[in-house]
Amino acid sequence: QMCDKFTVCENSMEVLVRNNLNLPKVTEEDGLTFTFLSFQDKCLRKISSGLYTFQTYLEYIQETFTSEKQNIESLCYSTEHLARTIRQMVINPNEVVIPDSATQKSLRAKLRSDKTWIEKITTHLILRDFTSFMEKTVRAVRYLKNTRSFSV
């Protein structure tokens, strides 16, 4: 929809130039290989922290991508629920990093300061990276569900 509506696509030069958002990512270093239990816990902490961080970005999208407001509201709610659920799976849930209100407020202000055309690119980048993050999250949770005795 972003490509059709705003002509913002992967091959757009502006997308590559603008990507300084520092969005959460999950990598093999975060325990995605699941070789040891400690890496599994590290991965779960990273996923939960990333989902909590994405909340602020998704709220920004909710404000700017008004034609999909209901879908984005649902996405925000589901993301928060998943972050809480995965946090409960962590051996020590207090180790999950949750952005404080000052950090969230600062990020919101930074995102809102962008011009309209950059707003569209920012929305695209957030949704693209969120999709990638969620793909890795799904793989991690499926693996853990099959190797540990818990349900999601």
UniProtKB/TrEMBL annotation:
It comes from Eurypyga helias (Sunbittern). One of its GO terms (cellular component) is interleukin-6 receptor complex. InterPro entries: 4_helix_cytokine-like_core, IL-6-like, IL-6/GCSF/MGF. SUPFAM superfamilies: 4-helical cytokines. Belongs to the IL-6 superfamily. It holds the Pfam family IL6. This is Interleukin-6. The keyword Metal-binding does not apply. Keywords: Acute phase. Cytokine with a wide variety of biological functions in immunity, tissue regeneration, and metabolism. Binds to IL6R, then the complex associates to the signaling subunit IL6ST/gp130 to trigger the intracellular IL6-signaling pathway. The interaction with the membrane-bound IL6R and IL6ST stimulates 'classic signaling', whereas the binding of IL6 and soluble IL6R to IL6ST stimulates 'trans-signaling'. Alternatively, 'cluster signaling' occurs when membrane-bound IL6:IL6R complexes on transmitter cells activate IL6ST receptors on neighboring receiver cells. One of its GO terms (molecular function) is cytokine activity. The keyword Thylakoid does not apply. It comes from the Eukaryota. GO terms for biological process: acute-phase response; cell differentiation; immune response; positive regulation of receptor signaling pathway via JAK-STAT.
